[in-house]
Amino acid sequence: MTALxxxxxxxxxxxxxxxxxxxxxKGNAIVPSYVLEYLLGQYCATADExxxxxxxxxxxxxxxKHYVHRNESGLIKSVIREKGRHKIIDKVSVAxxxxxxxxxxxxxxxxIKKVLVDSDTVKKHPKLLVSGVWTIVDMxxxxxxDKSTSPWIINKLKPIQLSHFNYDNYIAARxxxxxxxxxxxxxQSIGFNPEKLGKRSKLLQLVRLIPFCERNYNLxxxxxxxxxxxxxxxxxxxxxxxxxxxxxxxxxLFVNNNSGKIGLVxxxxxxxxxxxxxxxxxxxxxxxxxxxxxxxxxxxxRGVETIGAEASMVFVGNTRHTLPYMLKxxxxxxxxxxxxxxxAFLDRIHFYLPGWEVDIIRGEMFSNxxxxxxxxxxxxxxxxxxxDYSDLYAQHFNLVSDISxxxxxxxxxxxxxxxxxxxxxxxxxxxxxxxxxxFAIEGRKRVKDQLxxxxxxxxxxxxxxxxxxxGKTIHVKSLEEEEYPQYFGSFQDKESETEIDPQQLEQPRxxxxxxxxxxxxxxxxxxxxxxxxxxxxDKLFDQYLQGARKxxxxxxxxxxxxxxxxxxxxxxxxxxxxxxxDEVKVHLITAEDEFKGPQQVENxxxxxxxxxxxxxxxxWEFDENQILHARHIVTDHGWKILLDRGLDIxxxxxxxxxxxxxxxxxxxxxxxxxxxxxxRVDS
Length: 683
Prior knowledge:
One of its GO terms (molecular function) is peptidase activity. Keywords: Hydrolase, Protease. Residues 534-680 form the MITD1 C-terminal phospholipase D-like domain. Residues 10-141 form the BREX system Lon protease-like BrxL N-terminal domain. The chain has 683 residues and is an alpha/beta fold. It folds into five domains: 3-66, no CATH class; 70-159, CATH 2.40.50; 167-382, P-loop containing nucleotide triphosphate hydrolases (Rossmann fold), CATH 3.40.50; 388-487, no CATH class; 524-680, Endonuclease, Chain A. Helix content is 36%, strand content 19%. It contains 25 helices and 24 strands. It is globular and about 90 Å long. Mean pLDDT is 89; it is low at 490-506.
C-alpha cells in the first residue's frame, strides 16, 4: 500500500479495487475486464487483506459456478434442467421475431436461441438488441409437450454494470487530490503503473478516455504493435463496442433501410474499429461516404429522414514503418485502406494519437495499485457527456483567428474531454489549462499537417494561441515536428522561433559522403589475437554495412542467450549507422536449438518487436536441412564478410553486472582469437 493507495481508499471507499486482482480471478474465462471488476467491486472493494482474500475466493466461486464456458455449455444446460433453476453469466443478444411478434434471446456461450424475453426488459436495456450485453441471468427450465415452445425461461435478467452512482461525491473527492495524484489514480484505473510512465505518456493513455466523455468525438491512433491500442475500447466500458474494421456494413453501423432498425451508432457511446489499417483491405465506398457525413454533422440519412446520434468514432491500427520513414517517404495516414485515405474523411478526425510514442506493453508496466472499478469510472465519464468544458480556456487564452472552424472544433472537443477527465471540478490553474490546450492543439495539428501532404488544396494554418494578459502569441508544434523539422519545411510557420538543427540539414551530405567512402573500401582481412581488447562490432562492421538496405547473416550458433545477445548488439550497430528516416532489413539464417527452441523463438520475437522501433526489420529462418558451418554476412550493396567464429568473438564476461564496463562496452572485453575476411561480390 502506497500513500496514494491509502488516499484512494479513504476517499473512494467501496469504489476502487486492486488492479492485479483481475488477472488473479480471470483464469481461462474469456470475459471483459469490466465484468470481472464488477464482481470484484461487489466483494473486494476494500483495502483489508483478509477481506480481499475472502472476496477473491467468492468471485472465483461465482465464476466457477455461474460463468458459462463454451466447452461446458452442455453441463450447464444439464444443471439448469436438473435443478429447474440456475443463475448464469453469459453474453445475451435479443432480436425481434416479427412473425410471432415476440422478442427472442440468444446466449453466446450457452448456445441456446429463441428464448422469450418480455418487452419491459428490452425497453429497459435496449443494447440487448445490438451486438449483445454481458448479463447475470436467472434461468429456468420447464419442458412443454408443444415442441415449438422453448423449455428455457428467463426469470430475471440483469446487465453487468453499475446501477447508480453519486456524481457530487465524485467531484468532492476529486478535490482532495492534487493533479499528479489524480492522473496517477486514473492511470492505475486503466491498469498501468504510473511510476513506469512519464507525464506526457500518461496523458496519451488518458486521451483514449475522451470518447467516453465527449459526444461525437473522432479519434485515430496508429502506431506499432503491442501498445494496447484496443484494450480500453474492448474491456473498459459496457458503453463501448470494438469491431473489426473490415467487418462492418452500412446497415449494421447506421441503419437497415429494409427493417428500419438503427445500427450501432444509435445504441453505443463509442464504436471503435480495431485493425483499421491495411492498404489492401476492401471497404464499401458507401460506408465511407455516410461515415463522413455522420462524423461531420452527427447525423445520417435514412431515405428522406435524417437521424441524429452521439456515438464517438475511434480508429486504431498498426503501422509498419518508423516515424521518420513515414514522414520522409509517405505520411502518417499512409497505412489506411484506400477508401479511407481520403482528405475529406481524415479532416473529420479531431485528434491523432501518436502511437509511436506509446510504450510497448511489458509485464512490469501493469499496476498492482488501487484504481476505480472500471464500471464506476465508465458511468462517471458517461455522465460527463452532458457537460461542456470547451470554453474554460477563454478566460486566459484565445485561438488565433486564422484557425478554421473545423480545426477549432477538433481542438475544443479534445480540450473539453481532457478537462473533464483531469479537472471535472473545473479547478485548474492557468498553467494546467495551458498544458491541456497545447496538447489539444498538437493533436489536431498532426492531422492537418498530413492533410497538407495528401491534398495540396489545403492551405497552411498557424496553430497558435494568444494570452489574454499580454497578447503574446504562442505557436504550437507537434513533437515529431520538433524532432524532424526537415520534413515540415513547406508547412513551417515563418513566425516560429524554433531553430532547425544544423545536423539535420547536413544529413544529405553525410549520406553522400558515406557512399563515396563505401566505394573506397578495399577487400581485406582482420586477424585478432586472443585476449586482445578494444575490438567492437562498430569498428569491424560499420564501414561495410553503411548504405545497405538488406543484410543477411548466416550463423548456425545464434541459439542460446549469450549468442542471441551478441546478435542483438550487432543489430545495435546497424541501428546506429543507418539513417533515421530509412529502414534496413536484417535476415538471420540459423539452426533451432534442440533443447531451448521455444525460448530461442521468444527471444527472436522480442528482438523483432523492439528493433522495429529503430527501423531495423528483423526476420529469421531455421535451416533444418543441413548444419550450417559457414558463417558470413552478405549485404545487398556488394560485400560478403566471412566470419570464422561468427559473432561469438568475446571471452566470457559477467552479463548480470550492470556496473561492469565489459558488460556495457565491447571495447573493454577480452577477445577470443578470430579472423574476418571482407570480400567484394556482385550486388
